[in-house]
Design goal:
By secondary structure, the protein is α/β, with parallel strands linked by helices. It contains seven helices and six strands, in the order E-H-E-H-E-H-E-H-E-H-E-H-H.
Length: 176
């Protein structure tokens, strides 16, 4: 549906671990921005071994990484200190300013940047506004969502359905 186009991600993946980072690097991407809760780990969870391993592999490939989160600093700092990446907290997503601050902090450009997030109305719209390729990630564990996020997930459902229909992706891939 054309009405939703500005909300569409550049791509969709079930898990950030499924992304083809070698192809991204070959195409000139050098900075990975990511949301934390329900993109990297369940909401409120610390960085786990699988997440830490992924981040270390991406650093070894030559990527810079930075978290962009609407959370308060204690939550974001706890996660990022463990995995050794810089961060922008209280990013005010879906405004572009938090994304652009992260790009500048890392000395990169929007053309070299990918953003991974699990929510259309904050993560994806914000990255799109900043001119950054946005990758929608299936939420890790919706049961850990706070009430305002549960409400947003209901409202974003038509956008996701329209995007999936356009791309030929089975909608059950996201909602099951």
């Amino acid at each position: 549906m054309k009405l939703f186009k500005f909300m569409y991600p550049s791509d969709y993946i079930r898990s950030i671990r499924d992304y083809d980072f070698d192809a991204a690097f070959a195409s000139g991407k050098r900075l990975i921005l990511f949301d934390i809760d329900n993109t990297m780990v369940p909401h409120g969870a610390p960085a786990d071994a699988v997440c830490t391993e992924l981040i270390n592999k991406l650093k070894a490939k030559g990527f810079s990484l930075c978290a962009v989160s609407n959370n308060k600093e204690p939550r974001v700092k706890m996660f990022c200190d463990k995995v050794g990446v810089p961060y922008v907290f209280k990013a005010d997503k879906p405004k572009a300013s938090g994304y652009l601050k992260a790009v500048a902090m890392c000395g990169s450009s929007v053309n070299e940047t990918l953003f991974f997030g699990d929510q259309i109305f904050t993560d994806i719209i914000g990255a799109n506004r900043a001119g950054i390729d946005s990758i929608l990630v299936r939420p890790i564990d919706r049961s850990t969502d706070e009430i305002q996020i549960k409400i947003k997930r209901i409202i974003e459902k038509p956008v996701i359905k329209a995007f999936f229909a356009e791309k030929g992706i089975a909608i059950t891939d996201y909602f099951n």
